[in-house]
């Protein structure tokens, strides 16, 4: 089976589209159908929603993974097009089917999407549900969702104006990112901590976080406008 994740570059959906088209032309059976679901997702990221739906419409589903991914990508297309209420039944169907099939990573993915399309009052509990599934999973790919879900939960708290809870949750996400050892996602998690600190009025601590990030980025020959924006707001 093709490594779907290896073909993705979410910063370049057009390039991802080309890779999935080429891979699908070489594949057969369920593998080809899985690749086509990701083609639909890549089209959606380019706001080519009708084309994405057309790809999914033509899939002949006879495989558990294909069935889950078809519902999941249908839901993502609808959410991205501004129809979260229409997306939710598809995402919930994907979550149920993934759980029944033992597809742990897709189960967590679908649950996280259900939380994103739910009303604000439901998002915290639904994200906690996804976290519980991720933490208890055997599949490492499912467990790797923990940091992203903690970030989402932190955003739920931030949107509700509970910055103390947001900071505590972003700090938990940062701890997981550091354990995972990926520099880019860890920097993002540090930025989230600094952002929460600024919103709590803890400006000296916030400035220290963003200044350290700026120095690391410069040493690596990189830049991040979000870091620069925070430093400007902090007067640093």
From TrEMBL:
Pfam families: TPR_12
SMART domains: TPR
Listed InterPro entries: TPR-like_helical_dom_sf, TPR_rpt
Residue stretches of each TPR repeat: 147-180
Keywords (A to Z) from UniProt: TPR repeat
Domain of life: Bacteria
Protein's UniProt name: Tetratricopeptide repeat protein
Organism lineage: Bacteria, Bacillati, Actinomycetota, Actinomycetes, Propionibacteriales
